[in-house]
Write a structure and sequence with these properties.
The complex is a heterodimer of chains A (251) and B (436).
Chain A lengths: L1 E10 L4 E11 L3 E5 L6 H9 L5 E9 L2 E2 L5 H7 L1 E4 L11 H11 L7 H14 L17 H15 L3 E5 L7 H14 L5 E6 L12 E6 L2 E6 L1 H10 L1 H8 L6
Parallel strand pairs in A: 3-8, 3-9, 6-7, 7-8
Antiparallel strand pairs in A: 1-2, 1-4, 4-5, 9-10
Helix pairs in contact in A: 3-5, 5-6
Chain B lengths: L3 H16 L4 E4 L3 E4 L24 H4 L6 E2 L2 E2 L3 E6 L2 E7 L1 H5 L3 E3 L1 H7 L1 H7 L10 H9 L4 E5 L9 E6 L6 E10 L4 E9 L6 E12 L4 E9 L4 E12 L4 E8 L4 E10 L5 E10 L4 E10 L5 E10 L4 E10 L7 E10 L5 E10 L5 E10 L2 H8 L5 H20 L2 H17 L1 H10 L1
Parallel strand pairs in B: 5-9, 8-10, 9-11, 10-12, 11-13, 12-14, 13-15, 14-16, 15-17, 16-18, 17-19, 18-20, 19-21, 20-22, 21-23
Antiparallel strand pairs in B: 1-2, 3-4, 5-6, 7-8
The chains are: A alpha/beta (251), B alpha/beta (436).
Chain lengths: 251, 436
């Protein structure tokens, strides 16, 4: 059971951003994908989710061996892929609770019973220390940065995917919010979930220890290792990877 | 000679009607509302026999009145139905009537309460406003009259229905409402037609007066179906001292609609909320002109209009805020939004402002936009199919207006109709949003 990315080349209308990325996330594993701005991290996350903004020109994305490269985002989600957005969209007029119910039901044959949904929602809100009144607000409308990220993790908890991609979930969070979000992610770790944490900084990795670390630079994975690679990066910065990889600091 | 004031007006209006050419409304060079396809000479008023019970009314009426019966008792304070040129059903709850409320056809009110009607009849409307206001003043039959005496509070809504259920009809409709000092009520006016082939005309006048401290929830629900119904109407609400009106017009269909909707805060302390919604489809043409007029100071206004367009429909909304000389310390706000769900639809939103005094706050804004693909992508990433995502986003966009109906059964009806219209336009909408 895994998400497998094979020799992935991705472009926007202007240019190619990923030049052949290979990555495999097995269920039960936590991976960190790190890289400086412009290295292609968010492109990879959104390509995994199926964003219409990116075009895969070569390579494949497989979930449990099934080719999802051409699938629409909703099909990928129902197959078990989830992405926590760096900048989630605002959905006016749709409450958090209604949105969650719609999303939960999208994966099911029979709609979830009201009571079961309520219990699940309450348990996950307690986990993320979210106030009750939060669920009646329109999704992301007027939310602070921290509230948006918590709403993303709440969705992750409610949808129980097989593979979760967290796109810069740590950016813009103060230390308390980061701790809450990290606790939530840790609570969901387990043999049923594979996680890919995409981040610029090593901060979140102080709270969520990865099994594997990959460094993305100019659209290529240039180094891979265990959690110690993140510590090394924290000490030396991205320049050491750049020198090692022999890449000039240009996009 | 109890009704001479009506007859005098009819005579003057007829003279003007015959003199005036069929109008064309032009605005800023690129927007025109023309009646050149209306075959006015082929349309005639048609009379119908009364019905005994609500159930005997055509389905298009009973379908729109979901709360008409519960426990065998009407959930309405009163219901008045005009079919074509005839009042075919009129009932008012005996408890409501016992409180002195008059709710009957305008024709009958002129007979039975001439002094009361004369005091208010066309106080703020004039047959000189144009050919169709003149036609309505000259030719109206049936009509509706509401008087809620001072201090009477009605919980349940009063409902007026104008029904056109056949082509070939010209319907001239006039509603007059007066809500007395500190009285409270909720009034809904429905304009309904089933889908039919052929033309019809609804030429309407609506006037409502809120006296000191009155509180009114007013809703207009227009769904003329997919036939060729032309709606040329003027609606005007006047709010006296310390009174409040929340007015929610809902426009869900009609071949061509040209309406003037005015709300006048006429005395100090009066305030209003005007929240409208439209959904146009096919080749419908909608032209709305609203005025938020502040005649005196210490008044407040809040106008929000939201529309969605599909097919190759056209919708124009012009919203004017006008604050008269001396109306200081007025505060008002107007915003209008249109959402295009088809490449062939065209929307126009023109907020404007005339302020003749100082020390007021008045602001306005307008947008014309499309569904944001980022929102659709976000929803799809949660497993929600594109069709459902688009529908949810449109419903969410309208939610602010629908909430302001503050009326469960009407809210349900509006949601249901919008959802059906979106389903009908689904293929187009999905294609359009996916292409961009």
């Amino acid at each position: 059971m895994s998400l497998e990315i094979q020799k992935l080349h991705v472009r926007t209308e202007e240019r190619e951003i990923l030049h052949g990325v290979d990555l495999k996330v097995e269920k039960g594993e936590t991976h960190a994908l790190m890289g400086p701005n412009g290295s292609g991290k968010s492109t990879l996350a959104n390509t995994i989710m199926g964003s219409p903004e990116y075009e895969v020109t070569e390579g494949r994305i497989l979930l449990n061996g099934e080719d999802l490269t051409e699938a629409d985002p909703d099909e990928r989600a129902r197959a078990g892929v989830f992405m926590a957005f760096q900048y989630p969209a605002t959905i006016p007029g749709v409450s958090v609770a209604n949105f969650l119910r719609m999303a939960v039901n999208a994966k099911r044959e029979e709609p979830i019973k009201v009571k079961e949904f309520g219990q699940m929602l309450k348990a996950n809100m307690d986990l993320l220390r979210i106030d009750r009144e939060f669920t009646s607000r329109y999704l992301n409308e007027g939310f602070s940065g921290g509230e948006k990220k918590r709403a993303e993790i709440l969705q992750l908890a409610m949808l129980k995917p097989e593979i979760a991609v967290l796109d810069e979930t740590d950016s813009g969070l103060d230390i308390d919010a980061l701790r809450i979000v990290s606790d939530g992610v840790n609570a969901m770790r387990g043999p049923e979930l594979g996680t890919l944490i995409i981040t610029h900084y090593t901060r979140i990795l102080d709270y969520v220890t990865p099994d594997f670390v990959h460094i993305l630079l100019n659209g290529r994975i240039v180094r891979q290792g265990g959690a110690e690679l993140a510590s090394e990066l924290e000490d030396k910065g991205y320049d050491f990877v750049r020198e090692e990889a022999g890449v000039a600091d240009a996009r | 000679m109890p009704a001479s004031f009506v007859d005098d007006r009819r005579a003057a209006a007829l003279e003007l009607y015959e003199r005036e050419p069929v109008p064309t409304w032009r605005r800023s060079g690129f927007w025109t509302t023309t009646l050149r396809n209306l075959r006015l000479e082929e349309l005639q008023p048609r009379h119908y026999d009364p019905v005994q019970a609500v159930e005997d009314l055509p389905d298009v009426v009973t379908d729109a009145l979901p709360d008409r019966m519960a426990d065998g008792r009407s959930q309405m304070a009163g219901l008045l139905v005009q079919r074509g040129a005839s009042t075919v059903f009129a009932s008012v709850d005996p408890e409501v009537a016992a409180q002195g409320v008059v709710f009957t056809s305008l024709e009958r009110a002129v007979e039975e309460h001439p002094e009361l009607v004369e005091q208010w009849y066309m106080r703020r409307l004039s047959h000189e406003e144009g050919k169709f206001p003149a036609a309505t003043a000259a030719f109206w039959t049936g009509g509706a009259f509401l008087h809620v005496p001072a201090n009477v509070r009605l919980e349940r809504p009063l409902q007026v229905v104008y029904l056109i259920d056949e082509p070939g009809i010209a319907q001239y409709a006039h509603t007059l409402g007066v809500v007395g000092d500190f009285a409270e009520c909720s009034l809904r006016e429905y304009c309904l037609a089933p889908d039919f082939d052929g033309q019809a005309l609804h030429s309407g006048a609506f006037e409502l007066y809120l006296q000191t401290g009155a509180q009114v929830k007013l809703a207009h629900f227009q769904d003329w179906g997919r036939g060729e119904v032309y709606d040329l109407s003027t609606k005007r609400v006047e709010i006296a001292r310390d009174a409040h009106c929340s007015w929610v017009p809902i426009h869900l269909g009609g071949r061509l609609t040209r309406q003037t909707l005015d709300i006048i805060t006429a005395e100090r302390g009066s305030n209003m909320r005007h929240t409208g919604l439209y959904f146009t489809e096919g080749s419908e043409h909608l032209d709305l002109f609203t005025t938020d007029l502040h005649e005196q100071g210490d008044t407040t206004g809040d106008t929000v209009w939201k529309g969605v367009l599909t097919g190759d429909s056209r919708a124009s909304y012009e919203g004017l805020i006008r604050i008269n000389r001396g109306a200081q310390n007025s505060h008002t706000y107007l915003q209008t939004h249109s959402m295009l769900l088809s490449p062939k639809a065209k929307a126009d939103a023109i907020p404007s402002l005339i302020v003749e005094t100082d020390n007021v706050s008045a602001s306005h804004g307008g947008t014309v936009g499309e569904i944001d693909e980022a929102q659709v992508y976000y929803m799809m990433s949660r497993g929600i199919p594109r069709v459902e995502a688009v529908r949810t986003l449109v419903e969410g966009y309208f939610e602010e207006v629908v909430q302001r109906l503050d009326d469960e059964s009407l809210t349900a009806l509006v949601r249901e109709r919008i959802s059906a219209k979106l389903a009908a336009a689904e293929d187009n909408v999905v294609e359009f949003t996916a292409q961009r």
